[in-house]
């Protein structure tokens, strides 16, 4: 039995899990950007922010470091999701271990959607669909030659 549908949907999920990797890379790049830090400080000290209660003692350096930690965690989670998608596609190719691939895809979809803080939602949906299809498809039972079918 060919598992082309599951493999294609898994590859789509891998591509969609690439989006959190790109977004996290941009956030990590902004963390080290000195101009970004200056703009954040000027925004937090602007008259508009002061009128709304001000920054309230928020340290911009700590906030930017938290942004970097968040981005790094999301990037690692998305890369792990892509790796598990590749593993599942290998299991599906040639119909080697479709049940294992389906379980891996479903668990990866659920955990990594939350681990990427929702940035991997679309990739998670693709993995979930591929996993359900991999588990739900039953192999066709071959009919022996000379066998009679009784109705």
Automatic annotation (TrEMBL):
Signal peptide: none annotated. Residues 2-114 form the DUF4064 domain. InterPro entries: DUF4064. It comes from the Bacteria. Keywords: Membrane, Transmembrane, Transmembrane helix. The chain crosses the membrane at residues 7-28, 70-91, 103-136. The keyword Heme does not apply. This is DUF4064 domain-containing protein.
